[in-house]
TrEMBL record:
Protein name, UniProt field: GNAT family N-acetyltransferase
PANTHER family: ACETYLTRANSFERASE (PTHR43441:SF10), RIBOSOMAL-PROTEIN-SERINE ACETYLTRANSFERASE (PTHR43441)
Signal sequence, start to end: none
Recorded GO CC terms: cytoplasm
């Protein structure tokens, strides 16, 4: 039996009421709420809020799900909504969703609501909960992790867009016997949001870095040292930047910019990709703008990244693949402590059906210089 009221921490889950109309309309009219909830009417009006309170939410309850108002425990003011839908009784599974009004963000409201609603669902007999997020919505992905959900993969074309199309959704799952959270991340956030040795600074790649990344990764000498040696499209670079934080949160890759620590001027980019999470192995890569070359910048950046990988990230082994003729990159790796481990012949795709050799370097924690 699903309870009418649930209190947890500083929030209260309860039924929507007629006096929620103003706050419901204001919260759901927020551009961020509308962006990631394409099934909501746009514009969202008081008439829509009244319909939801009188008809929409009650229908969700009658259908075996739940549609809670998330309210402040002290004032009872509406802070958002949380619900259970896509209920499959035979499989004892459901989908959890929540949204938070702009005046309530930054207070842990969504995390508290997700945790409380998950416990309600499990107490009622659900054994598997899904929380689906847009890849460009890292705030919701952080909520999923904080509430004990684990990244399970991508649900292809599982969501609809406001224009009638389809879009992929990132799937987060929690089972009834999973701990309540937070879920341990493969790639934790950087301490204080960046790494620095006073000369070079690394910070996470973001959506505003498209111009720099496109300029860097379409340079002929940078393209020549990747496989296959084909420059990325602008659309591909934009997507990489938009989804960088999601990749970090799901544990797939940590992508960073390399900056001059004194001036803040960009010097290049670097990154770490989990190649074998079960074995604790990750691979690294890097590229520099011409103005930053020949000054030890790449060596400093790789050393910073490796130190974080072996420290907070708990990675057991780092690898780097290079073109056999890229001696400058070999010297960078060797200065940091990487050792040449072997040549994998024809490992990578080249142009026109050709294959490219890959010279592999490896580094263990005790070898970092």
């Amino acid at each position: 039996m699903t309870p009418e009221v649930v209190e947890s921490g500083g929030i209260r889950l309860r039924r929507f009421r007629p006096d929620d109309v103003d706050d419901l309309a204001a919260g759901c009219a927020d551009p961020l709420v509308l962006r990631f909830n394409p099934v909501m009417p746009e514009p969202y009006t008081e008439a829509d809020a009244r319909w939801w309170i009188a008809e929409g939410a009650p229908a969700a309850w009658r259908g075996g799900g739940a549609a809670y108002a998330v309210a402040d425990r002290d004032t009872d003011r509406l802070l958002g909504g949380a619900g259970l839908g896509q209920v499959v009784a035979a499989r004892r599974q459901a989908e959890l969703g929540c949204w938070v009004a702009p005046w309530a963000r930054g207070r842990g409201v969504a995390t508290a609501a997700a945790r409380a609603l998950a416990e309600v669902a499990f107490h009622a007999g659900t054994v598997r909960l899904e929380l689906l997020t847009h890849a460009e919505n890292p705030a919701s992905q952080r909520v999923a992790l904080a509430a004990g959900f684990r990244h399970e993969g991508v649900r292809r074309a599982a969501g609809q867009t406001r224009g009638g199309g389809r879009q992929d959704l990132v799937a987060w799952v929690r089972h009834a016997d999973d701990p309540p959270g937070p879920t341990r991340r493969l790639l934790p956030d950087l301490p204080e949001g960046r790494l620095s040795d006073g000369v070079v600074t690394l910070r996470p790649l973001g959506a505003g870095d498209v111009e720099l990344m496109y300029r860097l990764h379409t340079r002929p000498e940078v393209v020549a040292n990747q496989a296959p040696p084909v420059p990325p499209t602008r659309a591909a670079v934009e997507r990489r930047c938009r989804l960088a934080e999601s990749g970090w949160l799901t544990g797939a890759a940590a992508r960073l910019l390399i900056l001059d620590a004194v001036t803040g001027e960009p010097a290049g980019s670097c990154g770490l990709t989990y190649s074998d999470p079960d074995a604790g192995e990750a691979t690294i890569g890097y590229a520099l703008l011409p103005s930053a070359r020949g000054r030890g910048t790449a060596t400093r950046a790789v050393r910073l990244l490796a130190g974080w990988a072996f420290g907070p990230a708990g990675i057991a082994r780092l690898a780097a693949g290079t073109m056999p003729e890229n001696t400058a990159s070999h010297r960078v790796l060797e200065r940091v402590g990487f050792r040449r481990e072997g040549l994998l012949r024809g490992r990578l795709p080249g142009l026109d059906g050709t294959r490219i050799d890959d010279l592999i370097f490896g580094l263990l924690p005790g070898e970092l210089r």
